[in-house]
Amino acid sequence: MNKKKEKPSVYSVLYWLLVDKKISSEIIFNFLDFFWPKFIVYKGHVFLKENFSEEKFNDLQKQNLEMVEFWMNLLITDPFFENEEKGEEKAKSLAGSLVDIWQVKLKNEFPDLQFTVKYVEDAENGDYGLTFYQEI
User: Fold this and answer.
1) pLDDT tens digits for 81-115?
2) Are 6 and 13 in contact (CB under 8 A)?
3) How many domains, the chain?
4) Contact (Cβ atoms closer than 8 angstroms) between residue 106 and residue 120
5) CB 3.0–4.6 Å: which of 6, 44, 74, 133 could bond 69 by disulfide?
6) For 80, which DSSP code?
7) CB distance 129 to 71 below 8 Å
């Protein structure tokens, strides 16, 4: 008899990580911030709170980059899957899912603003990710 091994539920995996492996419960809130990020508004721009710094903002402006939001909000996903089997596929999938999630979050928090949430890919260098910026 060939029984297919059942995949554990997300709740079972979290329990295993928190209780059996004794990983801090803060990981849950880190994941929450990763998937449902916090934003800040600075000088008329909207940024991922976790990516923002005044220093980085000023550096991008000094470079005369028109799309400061694009570069400040860029998140590359492939480093999360380095040296994993099907890592490229996983990086693409995560970036694509985050595009959908971030679109909803931005629309909920800033209903009067229009954003482009964009999947980005540099297949030559193996970089995959996403970013967002306001449509002007």
Assistant:
1) 999 999 999 999 999 999 999 999 999 999 999 99
2) no
3) 1
4) no
5) 133
6) G
7) no
